Amino acid sequence: MRLSTGRHRRTRTLSIAAAVAVAAGAGGVYLGLSDGGAQAASRTVTVSTTAQLETAVRHATAGTVIEIRGGTYTPSATLKSTANGTSSARIVVRAHDGEKVRIDGSGLADGSWLAAIDGDHWTVQDLTFQNSPAQGFVATSSVGGVFKNLVTAHNGGSGFTLRGDGTTDNLVQNLDSHGNYDPAGHGRNADGIAVKFGSGTGNRITGARLYDNSDDGLDLWQFSSSVRIEHTWAFGNRNGFELGGGGVTVGHVVGNNAAWDNTVNGFTENSNRGGIVLNRNTAYGNGGVGFSFATGKARLARNLAVGNKGGASELGSSAVSAANSWDRGVVAPAFKSTDAAGVYGARRSGGVLPSVEFLTTGSTVIGSNMD
């Protein structure tokens, strides 16, 4: 779904009395004051019902920590907030003590997003967003967001989205995004991760597992600032990593990732003429080209492409290619395993991708480490 951009900034505070009332209604309260007085009030709210969750998100301010008890929550409208945290008083939404929390959008009206944050310095972690009629989780013009150990699955649009101008210094870490399909677009617009229609520096995606999405694993359509992508797997999508589109010229940085079994290309510039840097990535068994960079100034080094139906690479005259598996004099190392069963396994401590031999070679100089 092509979403319009825009940046809307707003300031909203609660008095101490209001914060106490809201937190008490949501299941618990902790208040702490700093030199800033009432505006620096912080509170921890523990919620165990959908109504409590909706109230807590609606009234969150800088310093709010929302702890969600295990269970499935079914909001009646998009969970949304325009509140800002600060670098020292973040707004935090997380599962309580490692409990399994699913936020389910199956009861929302057609076209609704499940969660929408238009604010700065949020931490959202250890939650699943599933079964939305449209987008699963959307952060618009966010600064300093930390989105960690999330699952976005079986939504009617892209699973996880960063969008809007001023999207700056966000970290997306250890995301699982899978099975997203947009019936309205006949599957043409549902990505695992979409960083689209915006700009802003310092955004990083690491440790993601993006699979079985109807459009791309990762899509950077019309995002005009550099994004860093690392330690990420994309498989069973349309393109694995779509690194541009819509007329932007930007040099994203793409390192130590793997794309396999995608119906089109493993890694593609998608008409982005910028100096994309790709280092130590692996493309295996994709339906199109392993690395498709036919028009831009991409710089590719130490990448490994094996068994892609459209060939290892498609490079234009402006691209620079060195020490890749398709370059003269380079001998591609053999994979230890081509059995992908382990890639669906449980993540390791802290949310790190599972340990696999799949597509590993033992090489310290070429291809992804698959970690």
Structure overview:
- The chain has helices spanning 16-26, 50-58; strands spanning 43-47, 64-68, 71-73, 79-81, 91-95, 101-104, 115-117, 122-125, 128-130, 137-140, 146-148, 151-153, 160-164, 171-173, 176-178, 193-198, 203-206, 209-211, 218-219, 227-230, 233-235, 241-242, 253-255, 258-260, 267-268, 277-279, 282-284, 291-293, 299-301, 304-306, 313-315, 320-322.
- The strands form three sheets. A twelve-stranded parallel sheet has the order 1-2-5-8-11-14-17-20-23-26-29-32. The chain has a ten-stranded parallel sheet with strand order 3-6-9-12-15-18-21-24-27-30, with no helix packed on it. It has a ten-stranded parallel sheet with strand order 4-7-10-13-16-19-22-25-28-31.
- Residues 1-26 and 28-40 have low confidence and may be disordered.
- It has a domain at 12-99.
- It starts with 15 loop residues before the first helix and ends in a 49-residue tail after the last strand.
- It is built from two helices and 32 strands.
- It is mostly beta strands.
- β1 (43-47), α2 and β2 (64-68) form a beta-alpha-beta unit.
- Residues 118-247 form the Right handed beta helix domain.
- This is Secreted pectate lyase.
- Belongs to the polysaccharide lyase 9 family.
What would you say about this model in short?
The protein is mainly β and 371 residues long. It is 5% helix and 29% strand. Helix 1 (16-26) packs antiparallel against helix 2.
